Amino acid sequence: MVPVIELRGALPIGVGMGLSPVTALIVSIIGNMVPVPFILLLIRKILRWMHRFEKFDKLANRLEAKAEKAGDKLVKYETFGLFVLVAIPLPGTGAWTGALVAALFNLRFRNALPAIFAGVVAAGLIVFFITYGVVLIV
């Protein structure tokens, strides 16, 4: 559930700690999805609150800039763009970023949540096959 690490780090860590790759995948997907509905529903209110305080204003501005940068493709491709943004297992992508972008670009919850879930599953499968392949080699 931790931003930046998300599923991309949780899956290999879980396997490294002795979980079966399938169990680690399922737990990682569930854990990655837990904060998504809250981000989709509450992030705009939280950012407005953060802008009221000098300490948090810079962070809020950085989050909005990150969403704006990631959201360029979302505007063109909407739900599919959101799926791709979340599915690419690289730093700066993922469920947290996807939820932030979807909320700030006013994507409907009922469209955003399934796209993010599908992206998390796709990223999970990519990381799963990489992790499982490394485990088989070792």
Write a concise synopsis of the structure shown.
By secondary structure, the protein is an all-alpha fold. The protein is built from 6 helices and no strands. Helix 1 (6-16) runs antiparallel to helix 2, helix 2 (21-33) packs antiparallel against helix 6 and helix 5 (95-104) packs antiparallel against helix 6.
Please characterize this protein's 3D structure.
The chain has helices at 6-16, 21-33, 36-51, 54-87, 95-104, 109-137. The mean pLDDT is 87. 82% of the residues lie in helices and 0% in strands. The chain is built from six helices and no strands. The protein has one domain (6-137). The protein is mainly alpha-helical and 138 residues long.
Based on secondary structure, the structural category is mainly alpha
The helix/strand series, from N terminus to C terminus, equals: HHHHHH
Say how many strands there are. 0
Rounded to an integer in angstroms, the radius of gyration calculated over CA atoms is 16 Å
Helical content (DSSP H or I, runs of 4+): over 70%
| Mean pLDDT over all positions | 87
List segments where confidence is low: pLDDT < 50 over at least 5 consecutive residues.
none
Number of helices: 6
**Distance N to C terminus:** 28 Å
The largest pleated sheet is described as: none
User: How would the global form be characterised?
Assistant: globular
* Number of spatially distinct domains: 1
Roughly what fraction of the amino acids lie in strands?
under 5%
